[in-house]
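Methods — Computational structure assignment.
A single polypeptide chain was analysed. Its primary sequence is given first, followed by the predicted tertiary structure written as structure tokens.
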Amino acid sequence: MPKLKLSPAGQQLEVAAGTRLQDVLFAQGVEFPCGGRGRCQGCRVKVLCGHLPVSAEEATRLTRAELDAGWRMACRHTLAGDLELELAQWEISVLADQTSFAFTPASGLGVAIDLGTTTLAAQLVDLASGNVLGVQTALNPQARHGSDLMSRVEYATRGGQVELTQLIRAQLGEMILQLLGDRQTAQPLNRVVIVGNTVMHHLFCGLSVAPLAEHPFESDKSGRFSFSPRALGWNLPDTVTVEFMPGLGSFVGSDILAGIIATGLHERDELTALMDLGTNGEVVVGHRGKMVCTSTAAGPAFEGARISQGMRAATGAISEVQVENGALVCRVIGGGAARGLCGSGLVDAVAAGLELGWILPNGRMTVGAQMPLAEAVSLKPGDVRELQLAKGAVAAGLRLLTQQFGVELGGLRRLHLAGAFGNYISRASAHKIGLLKLPVEKITPAGNTALLGAKMGLFQDATEWDAVARRVSHLALNEDEAFQEVYAEEMRFSPHSF
């Protein structure tokens, strides 16, 4: 059986001949942003010993110097003999939640789960005290078939939906068992509440994603779902209730409903916004009298996808870029050599480029073919364009939602930034590029509101979720006559406040 050695960790695996490297390396931290279709370079590995022939895709996507140095795209190869590869042992940082809140005590245990496109977070909660007894985090195993939502949808519609459903159900079931340990004999697990975006909702619940793959991108089956553990293949008592919170419409899922509950947006008198920028941009604006939500096709850039040297916020990623004495200073997660650029670093880099005049407000780069950042990592014109498209969509969505209340952005009392990206992004840089055209003091990092909302949901009757969901209307940006004009305006890098 061939031996696969992974450096610099020194890990050695025995792998059956003919096994796809993609299947082996995903668990070791190698990313497959395009789902292993050979469209990007996100899964690059370096051959230190052994042989991997150059594929047709590699010949066009990698330079001759890179090929000669041993770089290959892992998704294009199977293991035929002994092989040693250099790859980044990327550690993941999953945003959990420890926020306290008011609740009515109940008996037994509950598990709250944030089912994210990239990462998963689950908390075991004592329903009598509200104390968190344990936390489990993991990568979403579906990511081997694409890092962004539409890659998953494409894979599902090509016959992979059952596999994607089984992958996520098995992973969450295992996480729950790890949380319980030997606690099940002391206190029973009574309830599991799950939240996630619309695609994750459909894939977990076994609903066809085909309606989400074509216009009008709607599904009438995104309501609340309840399961027995047996139906999910989980080794738990039949007395446990498993519930998936309802979505709000199109690509606005139950993670945003949970965020509304967590921030109390539905109980506020002043106009407030909640924004979650992950692999999909979801926004809701409103107060106790009215709430309107929308989704924007923005997420891949903010997650580092579709960026030439993009990666998630993990070890080796440039996460911060600042200007000091006319030069760029970069912070790398983990403190080692820079291997790529994550979403927060991308926003910082463009903001720095604007400050130095290396990038113009229209997005044109004035320093040539690339803007060096650190070590072998640089920002390219195509990366700037991807950020323009992403930030333009988000800024336009927020602006149009606010106008539904007869005011401009200045009428917003507060904007809650949810999720990992919102937790780490520089608010000053986001303002500088025109992503968030609000005074910095009005923008509040809100943490993992999806997980907090799911945890609060453990103490609520499901009819309460439905009541909040019914108060939220959905605005389809692709059907709004003003969207294209506003979108074009918002693609410029400008901090001007409306």
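Note: The two ends are 64 Å apart (CA to CA).
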